[in-house]
Each structure stands twice: as C-alpha cells, then as structure tokens.
Amino acid sequence: MSAQGRVRVGQQAPDFTCNAVVDGRIKEISLSAYTQANHWLLLLFFPRAWSYVCPTEIRAYSARVEEFLYSRACAVAFASTDSEACLRAWNATGELEGGLGGVHVPLISDGSHRLSRAYGVLVEEEGVAERAMFVIDPKGRVRAVAVGDIDVGRSVDEAQRVLDALGFKDEFGEGCPADWKKGDKGIDVSGKSKVEGQVEVRKSWVDWARPKIARTWSSASHASSRSLSGIMESSRMNGSGDNFLVASMHSDIDRMTPRSGMISASRSPARSVSLTSQPVGSPSDAHSPAFSPTSHGPGGMEGQMTQAMMQQQIDNMQAALANQKLTQDIGVAN
C-alpha cells in the first residue's frame, strides 16, 4: 500500500532537493529552482529503472520536451527510488539493450524515499513509487494529480491538455468542459446569477389570497366589464336612473355567482364586506372573524370574499356611471 497523506490539489507542493541525472551528468535539483524561474513543473513518478513500460513513456516525453518548455513554460522531471548511479547507467545504455538511449529530461533519484513519501506515492512494502503525476504551478501549488496502474503508461497529449486548461483558467477565469482543447471556449464558473429584484413578502393572508381570488374570478370580472356599457345604455333608455342601474347590476352579478357552497352577493351595502375597508396588514386582518383563514361554509372565508368581490364590482359600476353623467352635464353646460 502507498503511504498515507497523498498531496492533494490546491496544497503547496513539498519542496525538495535531490540528485538527478541531467544529460548524462549528476546534478542537484529542487522545486524552488523552477518556481523562482516562474516555471510550471510536471513531476512524474515511475516505479523503477530497467523495466518495460517506464522507458516508453520517458522517451515519449523527452522527444516532445520542447513543446513543454517553450510553448508552455513547463519543465518535465521524472523521479524514482533508484540510485543516481543506476539511473545514469540506464540513461547511457542504448534502447536495444533495454536502456533509455540518452533522454533530455531530468531523472531524479529518490533513494532515501523522502520525496515519494512526502508526495504520498511510496509503496512501502516494495520500496517503489506509484505511477503518479503532479502538475505544479509557478507559485508552488499542486494543480492536478493523477495516479494510475503501475503497468499503464501516460499520455503526453493529455498532460499538455491539462496544462493548457489550467493556464486558460488562470488567464481568463473560466472553466474548461470535457474534452476541452486549446482554442476552445470556456465556461463561466463564477456562479453569479442575474438578480431580478427582491422577494415580495406579503404582510397578511389577505395579501396572499387576493391574487388567487383575482385569478378565480377573472372570467366573471371580464363578463361584468363587457356588460357595463349595455347596462348603462339600458338605464338611459328606461329613464329610471340609478335604481334601475343597481338592480340590473345585481341581477347580472347574481347570474355569475356560484351557488354551490357560497353565499350570494348581498344587495345591502350595510351587510357587504369590502377588501379595502381597512389598510392591508392592519392588526384586525389576522384576528377578524369575518376574515379568518380557517373559516369555512357559506358564512366563512369563501362566502365573505365572494361578497367582497361582488360589492366591489357594484361600486366600480356606480362610479363609472357617475363619471359619465358628470361628463354629459359638463357638455350640456358648455
């Protein structure tokens, strides 16, 4: 099993100073050297030298190292628990004899196991590192981690795609969808939605019920409005004035009032209930028996609200007639 506490994305990468084989020579290498140069670092752990899969991927990365260095400002380094002498001999050996044939990427020697243990990829029982990849940005933060099967090599193209995506996010602040490639569009990941106003908090149950009642009686209200002109015309033709108008309106409203389970509209103004008789949200809204949200039956909430709607329509029609008469009087006077 690997050591516990594997380095995660977003954490500061453990700094290290190790010996490495670079172009056939043994040199000292450290993480801080790359961060100080404002470079990204692709740190790739592999199990062991003189194996079968490892030389194929090391040679593949070495052949395209310039694509990392010059196009992406990213250094590539491989690390294993082999000694520097072992790695040096392996690099100097030709491909036909199982060697690397002289690669151009650093081969870090982690003979003490400090580096692989610090990154949490050391297989303690075997003393080798897992096949793992860590992408480290110029600030020394780990930005991507990938750990795979020990016998499955990694893709150079995928490593470059991840680097390009991370650079794109840092530059434009956008995320990258699946299969994103350099040149594709990003996705807004800010999480900010368009605000379309504040939530309307209703002060009482009457405010909550009014729009529902309006929708329920919309058809009746439209019918009443269409018949208003006809009623007023009949009033003038009969010559009976307001009494005929009010009686006609009551007759028209009675025809629109549901009979089942509801009280019909009262013709007595003294008995009618008006929604506008007191300010909305006043203390009596919540405690008045006539407007109790829990009342039922003909004398309960539904019946009272029906009366209120009918009386309001009567008042509106009377006001309209008064305005028309006033307009006619002004015309005669002129």
Keywords summarizing the entry:
334 residues, alpha+beta, Glutaredoxin, seven-stranded mixed beta sheet, 11 helices, rod-shaped, AhpC/TSA, Thioredoxin_domain, thioredoxin peroxidase activity, Thioredoxin domain-containing protein, oxidoreductase
Molecular structure report:
- This protein is an alpha+beta fold and 334 residues long.
- It has two domains: 17-172, Glutaredoxin (3-Layer(aba) Sandwich), CATH 3.40.30.10; 205-333, no CATH class.
- 43% of the residues lie in helices and 13% in strands.
- The chain is built from eleven helices and nine strands.
- The protein has helices at residues 31-36, 54-63, 65-72, 84-92, 114-118, 156-172, 205-216, 218-238, 241-256, 283-287, 301-333, and strands spanning 17-22, 25-30, 40-45, 74-80, 107-109, 122-123, 128-129, 131-136, 142-148.
- The strands form two sheets. The protein has a seven-stranded mixed β-sheet with strand order 2-1-5-4-3-8-9. The chain has a two-stranded antiparallel sheet with strand order 6-7.
- The chain is rod-shaped, with a radius of gyration of 42 Å.
- One of its GO terms (cellular component) is cytosol.
- It comes from Cladosporium halotolerans.
- InterPro entries: AhpC/TSA, Peroxiredoxin, Thioredoxin-like_sf, Thioredoxin_domain.
- Residues 256-303 are annotated as: Disordered.
CATH level-two architecture of the largest domain: 3-Layer(aba) Sandwich
Order of helices and strands: EEHEHHEHEHEEEEHHHHHH
Tally of strands: 9
> How many strands, what sense, and barrel or not for the largest sheet?
7 strands, mixed
The total count of helices amounts to: 11
CATH topology of the largest domain, what is it called?
Answer: Glutaredoxin
Contiguous low-pLDDT stretches (5 residues minimum) are 258-295
Kindly report the name of the CATH homologous superfamily of the largest domain.
Glutaredoxin
Shape: rod-shaped
CATH classification class of the largest domain: Alpha Beta
Structural class given helices, strands, pairing? alpha+beta
Number of domains: 2
How far apart, in Å, are the first and last alpha carbons?
A: 105 Å
Strand order across the largest sheet: 2-1-5-4-3-8-9
Could you report the average pLDDT, rounded to the nearest whole number? 78
Radius of gyration: 42 Å
Protein name: Thioredoxin domain-containing protein
Family: Belongs to the peroxiredoxin family. AhpC/Prx1 subfamily.
GO molecular function, one term: thioredoxin peroxidase activity
Biased composition (Polar residues): 263-281
